[in-house]
Amino acid sequence: MAATEPVRPKAARSQGWTAGGPVSGRDTNLIRIGIVLGAAILWEGVSRSGWLFQDVVPSLLAIGAAIGKMLVNPAFYANLQVTAGEVFASLAIGGALGIFTGIALGSNRFLGAAFEPYVYYLAPTPRIIFFPVMIMWFGVGAASKIALGALSCFFTVALSTAGGMRGIDTVLIRVGKSFRATPWQMGMKIYLPAMRVPVLNGIRLGFGTAMVTALLAETKLSNQGLGYMIMQIYSRFDMPSLYALLIIVFIIAGAGNLILGRVTGTNA
Amino acid sequence: MNNAAANAAGDKAVPVMPAPAAEAQLVIDRVSKRFGEGPGAVVAVDDMSFDVMPGEFVACIGPSGCGKSTLFNIIGGLQEEYVGNVMIDKSRIAGPHAAVGMVFQEESTFPWRNVLDNVAFPLELQNVGQSERRDRAQKFISLVGLQGFEKRMPSELSGGMRQRVSIARTLVSGPRILLMDEPFAALDEQTRLLLGDKITQIQQELHQTTLLITHNLTEAVQLSDRIVVMTYRPGRVKRIVNIDLPRPRTSDVVSSPAFGKYVAEIWGDLREEATRGMEEAEAGAAARGKTARG
Fold this sequence. Notes:
The structure holds two protein chains of two kinds.
Chain A: H1 26-49, H2 60-71, H3 74-107, H4 109-122, H5 131-138, H6 142-166, H7 170-178, H8 183-220, H9 226-236, H10 239-264
Helix pairs in contact in A: 2-10, 3-4, 3-6, 3-8, 3-9, 4-6, 5-6, 6-8, 7-8, 8-9, 8-10, 9-10
Chain B: H1 2-11, E1 26-35, E2 42-52, E3 57-61, H2 68-76, E4 83-88, E5 91-92, E6 100-103, H3 115-119, H4 121-125, H5 130-143, H6 159-172, E7 177-181, H7 189-206, E8 209-214, H8 217-223, E9 226-230, E10 237-242, H9 257-293
Parallel strand pairs in B: 3-8, 3-9, 6-7, 7-8
Antiparallel strand pairs in B: 1-2, 1-4, 4-5, 9-10
């Protein structure tokens, strides 16, 4: 969707730290606005033409009104809070475990060779298939969504951390040793900054997968959260509200991604 | 094959250094290093001995694969297991030593730090306060001619400038011996000559004791007071040549007849070794090709 910020190309190699400006300028912004406007006009045209059921393709005005209503609905904020809490708890747990595992796999050749194939094979498995297991372990509440979300972002973060660890230019480690850096100094002043970009990119991708997984799980079995709310509105066949909620979720996901992108950006 | 090479090298008497008059800054005393065990073992450095006097610029020159980098790592303390003694102040080097400052062949600036913070890195490790750190780093940034570039990131600099940042970073730690491994290998010839001027100037200004590891003949003659010529595998001292070119020197020296004489003389020695190195490398490649086909 147009609301998500496109990922800026980021060279993760050692020479990737540039202060260089963005490639795009006014032209790409015009195209982006054009895409949104074009989609809106097409949508409205289809809606008014009557070719499709008005219920399925409601007018933009109806959707706008539904967005307004949604934004003053206390139930929306309660559900948003639940989902946001789940996503951040997932990211915190899965991210921390992922970084820890990634460092272990990346720094130890033996561990890496022994365990990494499993991580690679498990990484693309759709996590939702573990949902029934998580429900049995953690119940139908937020805990099972957090567990599933943590599981999904764990792999992303672990793999990018392990890659970042191995990608460190060995000469930089030799430089640190030649200046007699302590192990603590090696970690804080060489390993961490050298791995910063791949690790933060992993966290950013992990945020995306955690969000997808949490929402997906909520649509399946839950009694709160935005996913649950979407299914509830769907069951009432309240299309304007459904679209309104989807647009709001898109914007939130896009904003979250944008903020993480800024944090992981090259400034600082 | 290895045996034949060892015998050929063994037939020649290795010249013995005359006893130094003053106290040497760095003593390399019968240093050897072997990698691996049994018939597959490679002797990288074999019984090398030479001294570096205070304020002296010595170059170690040899063909590729002669064990130069092994020697560099031993003296720098990154290769802790070796036979013989590398002595500084009567103590044997085993591990990185504060008196030795290393400059690496590879691109070694920290890409996430600007020039100032790169140069100040060793001071940061020693917990020097921020303002003193800046002042001291600034001094060496000016010394290598990078004033005005303090806030630039390494990616915004040329390769020659980045290598100067590395040199400044090593000098700021105040090493008594500057140890450089082919610091200009990745640079073009003109940059190399000009950077050589910079090095000569720095060395004359700081009276910096320097040991340069290189395979570049003009670079070695341009910069050095003495040149240690190494043999190809195992790395031994073939000859030590005094370079009596006037100081202060600039890169103009390369056009003087005396310079040409030294280059020709050392090339005579080096040529044998380089030829042997090339032949062995080619024989090795042919043997590998045969096993790959067979």
